[in-house]
Amino acid sequence: MILTFIYMEGFRFQELTHLRVVTILMTFIMVVSVLTSIAIIRRILMATSVLKVAAKVIGEVQALVVFPIIPFGILAVFYMLWISVFLNLFSSGQVVQNDCHSNCCSYSLMEKRVICDHCCGYSIHYTPHIGVAILFHLFGCYWVTQFLIACSSTVIAGSVASYYWGRGEASPEIPFISVFSSMKRLIRYSLGSLALGSLTVSFVESIRFLLESIRRKLKVSSHAPDNWFGKAAYQSSQFFLMCIEWTIKSINRNAYIMIAITGKSFFGASSIATNLIKNNILRIGRVNVIGDVILFLGKLCVSLSSAVFAFLMLDTHKYKSAHNKISSPFFPVMVCWALGYIVATLFFGVIEMSIDTIILSFCQDSEEHGTAQYAPPLLIETLSDQNEMQRFAQGSH
């Protein structure tokens, strides 16, 4: 009885420790969020107009709310098929008995007796063709993932761009027509461009993976560079590849938007997007930075709400009884927080893509007509006002 009492007290102490850690973490996150909001309150007010327009677009084109479920479901089916093919390839090697240089004994399940000959184990040997097939299969998984993400982004951008360039004319009777039209244009005209963009990202990511594998092998085999020059060269190469990867992903994202707007090829859309960003860097940065902060706070609120709801549910009498009692709610609460953040990221990505599409559409509209003719009045009032730094930059040219 005494040992049981000590054991239960230990569990209670551990549970209180977990709750204190979670409380401190949530308090810290809340304080940082509040201070960040106060520090950027003026810029938040400047960016709310774009968020209002994006919310209006999503409210009119209601299919955008549930559209992320489609690519997510396609990815889930693809991963199941991919895993089955990968297991088939992985098991296609030839089982070869290892060379035995010492006497050993082991129990044979087939012969049901102890055998002291040739018991050094087995290994799988792959032919070069199977090895290449496995590498191509791994590369194809990442490529298809990036391709489906690109298709999803382009469909969302096409739906929002149709609403923008149509001056907000959406059919209330058929709220899915914009999404279906965007999917039709994607399948008919833009699949090759998206495949090329996703291939570029996959290729750069593969190079990073190979370099990381080489680094790990050198570290294990004690051949890692000990001098400062070797370490600096390695860290610089990693940072350089990360910068290239981030730049390519950013260019691809904006290129997908311009593909949806203009219907041009991947390189043509990338050139247009780069020029638009270069000519409107302050206008775009003023909204994007604040928009990213607001969306991050939104994801944080959704995930923390899920965690709080899970904790309150586990704190009821049902989960404190002897039959259903859990030792600590820490792990279930963290799982709910992670799932809430993933779901929030999935759906907030629609808003993020809508904001980027609206901004680039506004910039394209301004480049073509001098002043934006298709933008809503609220958007014109916010984005047409250029600050002194931008006027100075234009005057210097």
From TrEMBL:
State the name under which the record lists this protein.
Choline transporter-like protein
Superkingdom field: Eukaryota
**Pfam families this protein is in?**
Choline_transpo (PF04515)
Topology in the lipid bilayer is annotated as: Multi-pass membrane protein
Q: Which UniProt keywords apply?
A: Membrane, Transmembrane, Transmembrane helix
GO CC field: plasma membrane
**Organism for this UniProt entry:** Pisum sativum
Spans traversing the lipid bilayer: 20-41, 61-82, 143-165, 186-211, 255-277, 289-314, 326-351
| InterPro entries according to UniProt | Choline_transptr-like
Q: Show the GO MF annotations.
A: transmembrane transporter activity
Q: Which family does it belong to?
A: Belongs to the CTL (choline transporter-like) family.
Subcellular location per the Swiss-Prot or TrEMBL entry: Cell membrane; Membrane
Role according to the record: Choline transporter.
